[in-house]
Automatic annotation (TrEMBL):
Domain DUF4136: 33-202
Species assigned in the record: Pelistega suis
Protein name (database record): DUF4136 domain-containing protein
Taxonomic placement: Bacteria, Pseudomonadati, Pseudomonadota, Betaproteobacteria, Burkholderiales
InterPro entries documented for this protein: DUF4136
Coiled coil: none
One Pfam family it belongs to: DUF4136
Signal peptide residue numbers: 1-23
Keywords, comma-separated and alphabetical: Signal
Length: 229
């Protein structure tokens, strides 16, 4: 064990204990943009999915997740598109992106430092004098060792639109996005479905970040928003 590690160990132990006492839950974050022209007389009216998901079980599972959150709109589901007052269309997708991350190493890199200078010089009447003190110094500073490298991440997106079935005019459009290094679209989709209806219908424009408590979500088998204490 290096000298630096010997010195650092007690500090690390103390810091770890402090962090454990003040630790916050693991969270998962989505980013949402939404726009609406939501009518005032929609409660109790019917909606239907315009997506044909009957032959795709994955897409059907996504439609079921969205339908589970549609209660926030006040609309009721029907399978008859002709009877529906509103149509719901969605698109779930994933794209791979590259992200640069930084990693800090425990042991820094030590760098020598040098410095020098002069003292003072002066004179006065009736007497005069001077002083010239040369000083120099050598010290050591350290710079944290940082490594940068790219990683592959998946950007999962759910885009949703609700439009008037008669006029074709959109009344609600929302997009939720989440980045993950390991989770699949199927795992992330419940969080995206909740996110597109969060604070429905909300204000127009702007970007909101929604945090979910991972542990509570696993315990309750449904996305649970993180609320700081």
């Amino acid at each position: 064990m290096s000298l630096f590690r010997k010195i650092l160990t007690p500090i690390v132990i103390a810091s770890t204990a402090l962090l454990t006492a003040c630790a916050t839950p693991d969270t998962f974050t989505t980013q949402v943009n939404a726009f609406n022209n939501w009518p005032a007389d929609t409660k109790g009216k019917l909606y239907a999915f315009s997506n044909d998901v009957s032959q795709n079980l994955e897409q059907k599972s996504y439609a079921d997740l969205i339908a589970k959150e549609m209660w926030r709109t006040g609309l009721m589901q029907t399978n008859n598109i002709k009877k529906a007052h509103y149509l719901v269309n969605f698109n779930a997708s994933t794209e791979t992106r590259e992200k640069i991350v930084q990693e800090y190493y425990e042991e820094p890199m030590f760098v020598p430092t040098f410095g020098f200078g002069f003292g003072n010089f002066g004179y006065g009447y009736p007497g005069w004098g001077w002083g010239n003190n040369f000083y120099s110094g050598v010290g050591i500073s350290y710079t944290p060792r940082v490594a940068q490298y790219p990683i592959q991440i998946s950007r999962h997106t759910l885009a949703l639109e609700i439009k008037n079935n008669k006029t074709g005019n959109p009344v609600y459009q929302a997009k939720a996005v989440a980045d993950s290094q390991n989770a699949s679209l199927t795992q992330v989709m419940p969080y995206l479905a909740v996110s597109v209806f969060d604070n429905f219908p909300g204000s127009n424009g702007g970007t909101r970040h929604i945090e979910f408590d991972i542990d509570k979500s696993r315990e309750q088998q449904t996305p649970v928003k993180y609320i700081p204490e």
